[in-house]
Amino acid sequence: MKISREALVAEGLALVEERGLAKLNMRALADRLGMQQSSLYWYVRNKDELMGLMIASLYRQALGQA
Known about the structure:
CATH topology: Arc Repressor Mutant, subunit A
CATH class: Mainly Alpha
Largest sheet: none
CATH architecture: Orthogonal Bundle
Radius of gyration: 11 Å
Structural class: mainly alpha
Shape: globular
Distance between the termini: 25 Å
Helix content: 55-70%
């Protein structure tokens, strides 16, 4: 299954909104996307990079640049 990095970030944000930041982890995101956890690492190096991309996305939305 091929997914865009933007879609991955969007699903990460949706997961945080539904379950809270404490429940965000790579396994939960992979399950949500219907893929293996190891496949996520083709798109992001780790959870820290994912969080950085999510924060950048929120900033762009707040500034009307999304």
